[in-house]
Design brief:
With 288 residues, the chain is of the alpha/beta class. It has helices at residues 37-45, 52-60, 71-77, 86-99, 112-121, 142-159, 187-198, 239-245, 247-253, 273-287, and strands spanning 2-6, 12-18, 25-28, 65-68, 105-110, 127-133, 167-168, 184-185, 216-221, 225-227, 236-238, 255-260. It has one domain (2-140, 203-287): Rossmann fold (3-Layer(aba) Sandwich). This is Alpha/beta hydrolase.
Length: 288
């Protein structure tokens, strides 16, 4: 079943619900729309699965009921520059669950959608388990990402009227070539991520850990360290380093922590279905 659901800002997102309704439900906001043709070939060159959403659904539907949708894609098409706050994102997710008549569910998010999962976990009692990929549950790089997204927004403002810049759409902060970028990025797309991180500047992810008592898993690729150049604040977002540093503490708090090994296991590779499913599927089966 697929249907369009109206979110807090009035925009509508396409959401699917598949699987046995007697099974546990997993929310997959990472279920990207499939792309084909030349765009798909370009993604494959970078090791990105152009049908990742489809493959996530196919990989889990035999064991679980799935609510799946492409929240990032929706926000890049329908930007919410002044109101993409953690609170409003959580309201969107709960609105989707309500519209699909799902009361309890597990959540899997990657990168900024992983930090959204942490916000969801402290704002509702409807979660049965939480999986965070590519973003650490403790000491998250909120301030570093605030620098990167602010610099990206400034770049977008400078370049929006530049005639020699090529238009590039559907860009999120994690997908930009920070050293070589000269393209024009939509200012509303970038501003909404600034808004999100602005509202996380005072967030203390250590203080909230005792509120989360459900099964929870955190993972990252062993090469998930992104170094941003001078134009983007000279910051390093060391996802795997933070996760490794806090691994013992996280495990004491009840998290399962996994580092995905491989010399090419960077931020992009560690989000692909072929990498993620062998980790999260057995974990979900064992913990739900």
């Amino acid at each position: 079943m697929e249907r369009n659901i109206k979110l807090q800002d009035g925009t509508e997102i396409k959401v699917g619900l598949v699987g046995n309704p007697d099974s546990k439900t997993i929310m997959l906001p990472v279920a990207k729309e499939a792309v084909y043709g030349q765009e798909a070939e370009s993604l494959r060159l970078w090791g990105v699965d152009p049908e990742s959403g489809k493959h996530f659904v196919e990989g889990l539907v035999d064991e679980f009921q799935l609510i799946y949708f492409d929240y990032e894609g929706h926000r890049l098409r329908h930007s919410n520059p002044d109101h993409l706050t953690p609170e409003n994102i959580v309201k969107d997710l709960l609105t989707i669950a309500d519209a699909m008549n799902v009361s309890k569910f597990s959540y899997y998010g990657y990168s900024w959608l992983a930090l959204v999962g942490l916000q969801l976990a402290i704002r509702t009692d409807r979660l049965e388990s939480l999986i965070m990929g590519g973003f650490p549950p403790i000491d998250g790089p909120y301030k570093e990402m605030m620098v990167v997204t602010s610099k990206t927004y400034e770049l977008a403002l400078r370049n929006q009227n530049s005639s020699d810049s090529e238009e590039q759409s559907d860009v999120s902060p994690e997908k930009v070539d920070w050293d070589q970028i000269s393209v024009k990025i939509n200012t509303d797309q970038t501003r909404q991520f600034v808004t999100m991180y602005e509202h996380l500047m005072e967030f203390d992810d250590r203080k909230i850990q005792h509120h989360i008592v459900i099964p929870r898993l955190a993972f990252a690729g062993e090469q998930d360290t992104i170094v941003y150049g001078q134009n983007f604040g000279n910051v390093t977002v060391d996802i795997v380093g933070i996760l490794q540093k806090n691994r013992q503490l996280l495990e004491q708090l009840g998290w399962q922590v996994e580092i995905l090994e491989g010399l090419d296991m960077d931020h992009a590779k560690a989000m692909q279905p072929a990498t993620v499913l062998p980790l999260i599927k057995p974990w979900l089966i064992n913990n739900l």
